[in-house]
Design a protein that fits this description.
By secondary structure, this protein is mainly alpha-helical. The protein has 2 domains: 148 residues, no CATH class; 176 residues, Orthogonal Bundle (Preprotein translocase SecY subunit), CATH 1.10.3370. It contains 16 helices and 5 strands. The strands form 2 sheets. A 3-stranded antiparallel beta sheet has the order 4-1-5. The chain has a two-stranded antiparallel sheet with strand order 2-3. A hairpin with a 2-residue loop joins strand 2 and strand 3. Helix 2 packs antiparallel against helix 8 and helix 8 crosses helix 9. The radius of gyration is 24 Å and the shape is globular. The relative contact order is 0.12.
Length: 437
């Protein structure tokens, strides 16, 4: 990181203002994490989560930044908004009218899609709030104490309204960070929640030293995490560049075109969506089994324990499937080929139109396979660390993909903002590419 670039921040008051807005709004989010909803025994809930490793609760608690563990007003986190966004992306594939609205109507069409996403978020929060309220009424702590001392219709109503309002407020905070601050607000909220749990994870790891963890393993794990982080940064910046040439054309007395550029295809186009979906599906049986005494269900859920071979094989298979599935949703080679043809662009040696579409599709298929293998290896790391060293979930997997990806986005936007104001960026002459650059 360039020292001159850090000094230049002081000369960009607009950037200071945006950074200040981002910090204050994230601080408001972290304060809300510790505001519990009424009517729940938070002590019993915290004790329950100490035994919830490897279940759907542990996954959701990570993405809510500890809000579910604290039974806070932000217990649902931003997952309803993310789910609504994914649903809208799927609907754009299925509905030509919605796809045309998002791509052809410009800013007004995108505004309508955003509004529909907000409505879907509200609906999902009501459904999830009701489910969580009903689940809390049937739960007991490790000592048999009920989670909800006074269950009933009033508790459910208050819980649904409180959690829905909290999620809507969190969605608004994310939009305000995007509009007035630096970076993508929703991504930064998830990032802040994961980073906030790292100190506690480090304390837990240190407490294991000398007991279940040999002293020599502490520096080994530190070096391993450094290597993994560097590898993730390298792969997240990796691109397959397809050369694109534009034919010359004459308008009047002036000649246009004749340029040479490239079409960048990211190695990990799907981002962190595949491991999130795959992990959620596989931990669902173990989560359901916690609330049932059925021996067959208990046996079935044991097959999906993270320490079993079946779990890991299915986990990798689902990651590969969702990598291809989600890449096909967000990246359409047909649209790219048509746009290149309209702009008189072509890939050298490939006919414009259908042949270009097939070529881009083949390249994307090959690099998506390598991206899926990379995500699988990174996501299997925490399973290995938990199984053999009893380390916290925060070390590796989806969490490190999110932290590294969001950090790269944030640094890239700060760097671009400073360069646009004719100041040397944080990285000097080097350029950092974010996930969407």
């Amino acid at each position: 990181m360039s020292v001159e670039g850090i000094k230049n921040i002081a000369h960009v008051p607009e950037l200071w203002s945006k950074l200040g807005w981002s910090f204050l709004l994230l601080l408001a989010y972290r304060v809300g994490i510790h505001v519990p909803i009424p009517g729940v025994d938070t002590v019993a809930m915290a004790a329950f989560f100490n035994q919830a490793q490897g279940t759907l609760f542990g996954v959701f608690d990570m993405f809510s930044g500890g809000g579910l563990r604290n039974v806070s007003i932000f217990a649902l986190g931003v997952m309803p908004y993310i789910s609504a966004s994914i649903i809208m992306q799927l609907l754009q594939v299925l509905s030509p009218d919605l796809k045309r609205m998002a791509k052809e109507e410009g800013a007004s069409g995108r505004k309508k899609v955003t509004q529909y996403t907000r409505y879907a978020t509200v609906l999902i929060t009501f459904v999830q709030g009701f489910g969580l309220a009903a689940m809390l009424e049937g739960m007991s702590g490790p000592n048999g104490v009920p989670m909800v001392p006074e269950p009933g219709a009033m508790f459910r109503f208050v819980t649904i309204i409180t959690m829905s309002a909290g999620t809507i407020l969190l969605m608004w905070l994310g939009e305000q960070i995007t509009a007035k601050g630096i970076g993508n607000g929703i991504s930064l909220i998830i990032f802040a929640g994961i980073v906030a749990g790292i100190p506690n994870a480090m304390i837990q790891t240190y407490s294991l030293v000398g007991d279940s963890l040999p002293y020599i393993m502490l520096p080994v794990i530190g070096i391993l995490m450094l290597i993994v982080t560097v590898a993730v940064v390298f792969v997240e910046r990796a691109q397959r560049r397809i050369p694109v040439h534009y034919a010359k054309r004459q308008q009047g007395r002036r000649m246009y075109g004749g340029q040479q550029t490239h079409l960048p295809l990211r190695l990990n186009t799907a981002g962190v969506i595949p491991p999130i979906f795959a992990g959620s599906l596989l931990v669902f049986p173990a989560t359901i089994a916690q609330f049932s005494e059925n021996p067959m269900l208990k046996t079935f859920s044991s097959w999906f324990s993270p320490s079993t071979v079946m779990y890991n094989v299915l986990y990798v298979g689902l990651i590969v499937f969702f990598c291809y599935f989600y890449t096909a949703i967000i990246f359409d080679p047909k649209d790219i080929a048509e746009n290149l043809k309209k702009q008189n662009g072509f890939v050298p040696g490939i006919r414009p139109g259908e042949k270009t579409q097939e070529y881009i599709d083949n390249v994307l298929t090959r690099i998506t396979l390598w991206g899926a293998i990379y995500i699988s290896l990174v996501c299997l790391l925490p399973q290995f660390l938990i199984q053999y060293f009893n380390l916290p979930f925060y070390f590796g997997g989806t969490s490190i993909l999110i932290v590294v990806g969001v950090a790269m986005d944030f640094m890239g936007q700060v760097n671009s903002y400073m360069i646009s104001r004719q100041y040397e960026g944080l990285l000097g002459k080097a350029r950092i590419r974010g996930r969407f650059q």
